[in-house]
Design a protein that fits this description.
homotetramer; seven-stranded parallel β-sheet; 12 helices; 7 strands; NAD(P)-bd_dom_sf (chains A, B, C, D); oxidoreductase (chains A, B, C, D); SDR_fam (chains A, B, C, D)
Chain lengths: 279, 279, 279, 279
């Protein structure tokens, strides 16, 4: 009797909350680029009764992602994969963001789409930034959905010289995640599995707190103040939405994105943000 | 001690499933244009132990919707409102569709946004058709979000002469529902409440079965065959998504749309539908 | 790719609600003694988009139960089994109740414990009557847990001459269900599966309504009036508890009973019922 | 618009997991005897986006518990109360255990039963030890349910000289918790609220790990090995069960206990434990 395996890629604030929410009674395979953080979380989870193993991964390398998928598959039935890894615009420059946030997700969707179990499901953490970015043309969207992964960074509108700054690279990557999940839903469906994305708003993770303290912090606070809920998200808000999408009550949901942003995008598009930011 | 009130507008297949899922231990106020169907469901629900009252409503009339909201409010705390009423392109012509499916939702959002309880939540059933329709300009989207309800049917691109057939009227209305929910999330938020929409795919309700038997039935089956799940939805799939959005695990979700379509839209945009429909 | 199979035994009010709640996207195998009711529910579920097959079963016959388990197993992975079949004291005499309600559950637990899939789960619908009955000795409880099924009806305190009326037979059977689930949790656990029972209170199913109209109806209403919730249960209340016990959030729960009775048993044991019944 | 308040008493491993699971979007009032631990968790939760306040409480003092309930009530609608505080047999002697684990729960149920909001709910963390202890007589059970709190420690079978060791005091207290919840469901019900208990098995909290390392650790491991799930519980297992009992799908559940023990009690009563412990 092989145990069910749940893979969590990226062990920041959301990855931790999700690992705790999904991992009980299963083998949890944690993956991150940073081995120190990885071992620290593994130790904490083991203390809480989880069965944990770890593997370093560089999501921008197909070889590294494939190795992770093979490890997962060797441990048991890969019933869940949650991808939370990513670089924020504060942490990296255009090229690194495109490689990790855009290409990385494409590779993970492809390699885990080859090992996910019948009845399994995956969630990719995108961002509400994917709902904000400049409108892409239908042709550009199609290209982001279906271009073979290795060609993604060669698309004219994705090449570093076409993407002017790290914020734009981030928004483009996160929009690409949503589209890539649409494209991947076919391969996942052929295996009897589902794949969706979640687009979080401003979440009070360490990364989120860093952004709130940064140069765009004032704007972010104005966005939150103008939103329907008027509050920051917690990692648990994202873990709860993830649990729903991975769980039995969402068996008819695949290839879609769920915006979990407290109402910020709705406020922006309704023109409320400007009024609020100005006051 | 006043009981909590849950209002279900529209008592077709989805309305029934949602009323059963949400109504236990509360006062259920059912509303529909058709009094016969209304009483029939009320009798069935009472037999199953629900506390039910009914009121006829014409959602295209502000007076009628306001009366419903007042009735709800007089019965207790209006903790949930689910709007499932609508006309399908098979059932009605352009004008009726725009009046019921587009204007009707705007009126319901507005009137219930005045009575919903602190901590309450609402869900509007839109449609995946709202994800398919021709792209609107940002100005048109803004107009659908924010134009006062009484002016909606006067917008140039909404006027019956600009909408060529009932299918187009339906798609436009359902896109408008999603946008209107964004716009309404501010007023609902000011009362401490949340509002979201669900966009169902092909659901095996009586209305859905009628469409599957109609002239577009073959295309609909091809869409389902090409989708990630490869199946029709059940009313329970929509009731489960509704329960999530209304429940405590979605307290950071407002002003958004959740596509529950088995992967059809993802298949369409990934070009899989054509291949499948041709085979 | 074989579909997941969910088996629902007994298609009364609770069986129907549970089949709708658990069956979407799976093969639903419905079983009941009454073929007319079986086909009628199957037709209704197919209309709602479920993939349904049926098989007549006499739960008091090992051969019949084994045949059902084999059918289930031949259709795919048996991920869930929910046993709702039973006779009420109004419907049958002592012998029939013991054969169906006590022996039947033992046979179902045993035969499905041989086919349930790794990661699967089951729920047996017992009754709050199992919490009310005269206290059994530890030896009697042990006998009900562990005696081979074929010997259960031969136990001295279970033999028809020791059980004075159908109400006592019902209470004893339902207490036995809870104990048998404890005993069965070992075999189910060895397959990586879980098994639990639910003890409903007064539920507004057709069977429940019949009891409320019968000679004990007044006492039942007094019990409900004295309870913490003060209301009848709905089939959805039981379906929701079932969904929890079968689902991922209950992966550490096995071999236990969940009382879903609106607070009736608590009221009885707190002496509130007498006061209320007397007024 | 006053925010909803959730009160978590006891901030060990379970209290932390429950606070994170239930607290988003609400005011979280944390209470514990140990102010250092209290402030440490509050700081951590604030970093994750929660709105937190704290108050020191000695649950064995009515005055202290009442003051906590008054603080909760002054902050908003007290929609949830979760009591996780308690002393383990390793940590304390008979008298302290009876005062904190038995009397403390009675006081909390009583004082929060006076402030809980209409529609609210509470959960008391008991223990599987309450399912193991020597059988009480019906008269003793009745006394534990209904004796005024101040008289509980004066009951002949509760007096320190009648309780021979800290393990017995713990088991008696935890059984009393389950019974006291039954008794309290009337007062909570009159306010439109529900109250239940959870009886956890061996959970990998710091307290649980301490017990596993202690003199009874070997026996505890044998119990886990013999159980249906064969594993330790995680704090998330308890938080998930708590979320269910507090949530909308449990609106017909009050005055009951949910055993979340991985199947240990079932294994014990089925005689599997001895076999396993002996091997």
């Amino acid at each position: 009797m092989r145990k069910e395996v749940v893979v969590v890629i990226g062990v920041g604030g959301m990855g931790q909350a999700i690992a705790r929410r999904q991992g009980a009674g299963r083998t949890v395979l944690l993956a991150d680029l940073n081995e120190g953080v990885l071992e620290s979380l593994a130790t904490s989870l083991r203390g809480d009764g989880y069965d944990v193993s770890t593997q370093r991964v560089d999501v921008s390398s197909r070889e590294s992602v494939r190795s992770l998928a093979e490890t997962a598959s060797s441990r048991g039935k890969v019933v869940q994969m949650i991808h939370t890894a990513g670089l924020s615009p504060l942490q990296a420059h255009v090229e690194a963001i495109l490689r990790v946030d855009l290409l990385g997700v494409a590779l993970v969707l492809e390699e885990f789409g080859r090992v996910v179990a019948d009845g399994g499901a995956g969630v990719v953490i995108a961002s509400m930034a994917g709902h904000m970015s400049v409108r892409l043309t239908p042709e550009q969207e199609a290209a982001l959905r279906m271009t073979p992964s290795e060609g993604l960074l060669e698309l004219p509108f994705v090449r570093p010289d076409a993407v002017t700054n790290s914020g734009a690279a981030y928004g483009l990557s996160k929009r690409a995640n949503q589209l890539r999940v649409q494209g991947a839903s076919a391969a996942w469906g052929e295996r009897g599995a589902r794949i969706n994305s979640i687009s979080p708003g401003v979440i009070a993770t360490p990364m989120g707190q860093q952004e709130l303290a940064g140069e765009h912090g004032g704007m972010m606070r104005a966005m939150v103040a103008a939103s329907g809920t008027g509050r920051l998200g917690t990692p648990a808000d994202i873990a709860n939405a993830t649990a729903f999408l991975l769980g039995p009550d969402a068996s008819f949901i695949t290839g879609t994105d769920l915006l979990v942003d407290g109402g910020v995008i709705a406020a922006m598009f309704s023109g409320r943000l400007h009024a609020s930011a100005a006051s």
